[in-house]
Amino acid sequence: EVQLVESGGGLVQAGGSLRLSCAASGLIFDEYTIGWFRQAPGKEREGVACVSASDASTYYPDSVKGRFTISRDNAENTVYLQMNSLKPDDTAVYYCAADLFPRCMVVDGKGLSRQYDYWGQGTQVTVSS
């Protein structure tokens, strides 16, 4: 059984930092591209970071570029999302997802594709002003 378990969420003041972790099991981790997504109440789920399986190349939308950093540790079957300079607009449930595809797929005009094979249960991030 494939499991993705997120951790590291919480409450932080604007300008602060959090590091999310996504621990994977039940799959050959280094064959999967991993994405981080978030969903705020009343909004669509959006991709905020991706790290490819093929060469660990990364993708970020403009909304988080320069503030968020994704990294993967294949030896530990874990992906991290370092989030700095957090803003109240970053408040959302954050999900990690795994896709058996070697690269991050970006849809023109829509950002990171949401066609992933497995999803975690999410972790809440709340940024207070």
- Terminal CA distance reads 40 Å
Average pLDDT, to the nearest integer?
96
Low-confidence stretches: none
Strand count, sense and barrel status of the largest sheet are:
7 strands, mixed
Fraction of residues in helix: under 10%
H/I helix tally: 0
DSSP, total strands: 13
Radius of gyration from CA coordinates: 14 Å
* Helix and strand element order: EEEEEEEEEEEEE
**Fraction in beta strands:** over 45%
Provide a descriptive summary of the structure in words.
- The structure is a single chain.
- This protein is globular.
- It has strands spanning 3-7, 10-13, 18-25, 33-39, 46-51, 58-59, 68-73, 78-83, 92-99, 106-107, 111-112, 118-119, 123-128.
- The protein is 0% helix and 50% strand.
- The mean pLDDT is 96.
- The protein has 129 residues and is an all-beta fold.
- The strands form three sheets. Strands 2, 4, 5, 6, 9, 12 and 13 form a seven-stranded mixed β-sheet that branches. A four-stranded antiparallel β-sheet has the order 1-3-8-7, with no helix packed on it.
Short précis:
The protein is an all-beta fold and 129 residues long. It contains no helices and 13 strands.
Summary keywords:
single chain, 129 residues, mainly beta, 7-stranded mixed beta sheet, 4-stranded antiparallel beta sheet, globular
Structural topology:
Elements: E1 3-7, E2 10-13, E3 18-25, E4 33-39, E5 46-51, E6 58-59, E7 68-73, E8 78-83, E9 92-99, E10 106-107, E11 111-112, E12 118-119, E13 123-128
Parallel strand pairs: 2-13
Antiparallel strand pairs: 1-3, 3-8, 4-5, 4-9, 5-6, 7-8, 9-12, 9-13, 10-11
